[in-house]
Amino acid sequence: MKKTKTPAKTIHLTKVLDQMIEWAFDCGNILNEHLVKSYTAPLKILDKGKQGLATEADLLSEAHVIKKIREFYPEHGILSEEDAFARELKMEGAKADQYLWLIDPLDGTNNFYNKVPFFCVSLALNRGNETLVGVVYNPVNCELFYAIKGKGAFLYRLIGHQEVRVQLEAGKTKKPFSEALLSANLTSKRVEKDLLKRFPEVRAMRRLGSAALEMSYVAAGMLDAYWEHKLQPWDMAAAGLICREAGVKISSIDGEDYHPFGSSVLTAHPALYRELLATLNR
Predict the structure, then answer these.
(1) Most buried among 76, 101, 118, 166, by the most CB within 10 A?
(2) What is the pLDDT averaged over residues 215-221?
(3) 249 exposed, middle or buried (CB, 10 Å; 0-12, 13-18, 19+)?
(4) Which among 275, 36, 276 is positioned nearest to 265, based on CA atoms?
(5) Is 78 exposed, middle or buried (0-12, 13-18, 19+ CB in 10 A)?
(6) Domain covering 13-168 in this structure, CATH number
(7) Where are the domains of the chain?
């Protein structure tokens, strides 16, 4: 007799979001504690060679989230940056009915290591290649971006003692490149040498060092576009959902449909997307 496949259990996404926010705050506390200590004692680091570096804070943050996921969702898969490095795991996608957590316990490790306050915790829950819930949290600047598929994207921000909570919606008005603030790694060997020569005039370019935060900034209108080659699923999953739910344009750099297991990402204000896509592919 043929065995029938047991369907994945239905989960309540609002509950998942609440848990993810709580876990992101926990991880943020871990990162902030280590950041403060780094002013009096060197951070403990793991050299990953060409993959960069990881600190003790990365590992502790990751361990905390993985423990929580295994406690509440033991049947779910987990793909995390530091765990993937340790096991040399290569992921090209998830099975269509599989719940999979995509975790970056510290996105922006180089910034963190150098005490630059631009890094985050990125948590996402996928079913197959589709991201259902995403949270991106910068613990130093108290910025929390979050989204549930089909329910919109939101930003909670603490500015001094004042709380700001807004729904993120892409700008509807026309925006010329001359007023745009863009972010990309233009010094990368993957960037074509002649790109800057043919690039339209912009207000300013930035390179901030955290893909998840930079994509979230585009969703919030704090940046007008971001693109990068050779990202990993845990870099893009949460912020990719936040961008989609905010209504900004998102695809691969060559214009293919976005999904977090792709190798590149381009996200932009709707008024800039087509021209930017054409410029990057000329």
Answers:
(1) 101
(2) 97
(3) buried
(4) 276
(5) middle
(6) 3.30.540.10
(7) 13-168, 177-280
